[in-house]
Amino acid sequence: MMNFILRRSSSCLPPPNRTFAVAAYFTSLLHPHSSPNSAAAAVAVVSPCLAERRREFHFKSGPLDFKASLPRLAESAVDDYIYDDNNNKDEGLEISKLGISNDIVSALAARGIARLFPIQKAVLEPAMQGRDMIGRARTGTGKTLAFGIPILDRIIQYTAKHGLGKYPLCLVMAPTRELAKQVEKEFSESAPNLETICVYGGTPISQQMRALDRGVDIAVGTPGRIIDLMKRGALNLSEVQFVVLDEADQMLSVGFAEDVEIILAKLPQNRQSMMFSATMPSWIRSLTNKFLKNPVTVDLVGDSDQKLADGISLYSIASDHYAKASIIGPLITEHAKGGKCIVFTQTKRDADRLAYAMARNYKCEALHGDISQSQRERTLAGFRDGSFNILVATDVAARGLDVPNVDLIIHYELPNTSETFVHRTGRTGRAGKKGSAIIIYTNDQARNVKTIERDVGCRFTELPRMTVEGGTGDMMGDMGGRSGGMGYGRSGGMGGYRNSGSGRSGGYSSSYSGEYGGASSGRPGFNANRGGNFGGSGSSRSGGFGEFGKSDRSSSFGDFGSGRTGRFGDIGGNKSSQSGSFFGSFGNKHE
Ligand SMILES: Nc1ncnc2c1ncn2[C@@H]1O[C@H](COP(=O)(O)OP(=O)(O)OP(=O)(O)O)[C@@H](O)[C@H]1O
């Protein structure tokens, strides 16, 4: 495997005319069987820009026989990408001068994108060369277009020469529906003449089957629905030339990897495979050899640098479990200053409860995997367009989501892993903007905060502790804090959260309504229990959060470390020990 680490660079790429020459050269390698003349003729007949799409002309993908001369060329690419630390004022690379299809150039220009971001610059040449690739760059730095532009360009060239096919030439897989939709949108907006489809669960499959039947150039989707469509014979992957695993470390983690492998096994051997993420934990290296051929690693993060995007200010604040919910309002008021804020919880139920309580004083909605797909989409659209400005979400929103101008991230509960911290935090400070993130931790979790600092190469500014005024009518007072927190280090065996005593019977509500039954401390019902909207009507049983632990695994605190694994490092059957979780098991795979 040839690796080269790229730091944020300036004079990375060769002059535009050379890039153009390289692109043109590889284009000719890609399609050696088409002479310039026949290509021109083909353009005249079927170019998507010039003619209506003619799906009935279906051409089998030609072999991608460009690998022979790659080592030499890749080496020259390495030279080009070597970073100059003293010269890191990146002016970007003018997209219009790269020889990229006019369709793409004008579509990007219409979106205000005229210059490549560094990762896009770094990826362009090896991607045009057809190299398999591992790409890492910080959150919000444009990885989608880094793989998108070269793929789109090559598909445009290919269809210009070979005509439009029925089956997708490119498959992109993403871990969540929202991210899949976003990637598909980015593709379709960047090459409006190509046919794209997004396939994901929670929506009628028949519609997707019909669209596939009409013919597509690019399919983006989540693994479950992709397999479903394959099994029904509606999605034929035999012509895929490009496959991308977005959020690759999550896609190759326990819980996803099996599905991904099934899909990859159905793809032609002769293809270009790329994996992208802001985090590439070391375990991923051993796996990549399984899926990639002689991959080049384009890494704009590096081992020693801090892993977060620039421009994100980090704060930490210590709080007791029961007080967390009470301090969140003041934190948002102070740090989000009326802008957009995402509050991350660990469980769906917590997201619901917190959102419900906060909605009394803020415009706020919940997002998690138990919400219907149509509602999820409405919620995200509302958050994007500013109909409300506080999103309380599980880690379903941690990765990839690109909502412009999120000012503040609050880790209401600590993330499972340092990688998740990076992704959650990366929902702010995107595309060069500024943002803030606050991590709320209990005394027991102080070590975890240090672990994050060490892993991520960052420093939190500690905020002064806030005092909780019980029964003051503070908007979150009802929650009485929450959740039993994470119980890190207390429950024995790391992940055996069941035994920590938290969140199972605890009815502690510091104030009046008892809607949430309070939570955390495991003390028996100390709950005003009048309202009881959630958590068992605040009844005499246990009140509020006392219900945790008896229902479905993924939304239940009581099920943390549910005994399935009982191992340190497992995240409820998702990433498992691969990702070095520093909490116990959460059983939160798809949130
Ligand atoms: N060259 C560019 N010029 C201006 N804006 C860009 C450019 N490239 C990408 N963007 C915008 O930057 C934002 C972040 O891009 P993107 O979502 O691809 O980031 P990412 O690196 O994939 O982040 P994450 O790791 O969180 O998934 C998007 O809104 C995208 O449209």
TrEMBL record:
Pfam family, one: Helicase_C
CC terms in the record's Gene Ontology section: cytosol
Gene3D superfamilies: P-loop containing nucleotide triphosphate hydrolases
Record CDD domains: DEADc, SF2_C_DEAD
Biased segments, Gly residues type: 532-547, 560-572
Catalytic activity: ATP + H2O = ADP + phosphate + H(+)
SMART domains in alphabetical order: DEXDc, HELICc
Stored InterPro entries: DEAD/DEAH_box_helicase_dom, DEAD/DEAH_RhlB, DEAD_box_RNA_helicase, Helicase_ATP-bd, Helicase_C-like, P-loop_NTPase
Bias kind Low complexity: ranges: 521-531, 573-591
SUPFAM superfamilies: P-loop containing nucleoside triphosphate hydrolases
Record keyword Ribonucleoprotein present: no
Domain spans labelled Helicase C-terminal: 327-471
UniProt record, GO biological process: response to stress
Alphabetized PANTHER family for the sequence: ATP-DEPENDENT RNA HELICASE RHLE-RELATED, HELICASE ATP-BINDING DOMAIN-CONTAINING PROTEIN
Family the UniProt entry places it in: Belongs to the DEAD box helicase family. DDX21/DDX50 subfamily.
This protein's name: RNA helicase
Organism annotation: Dipteronia sinensis
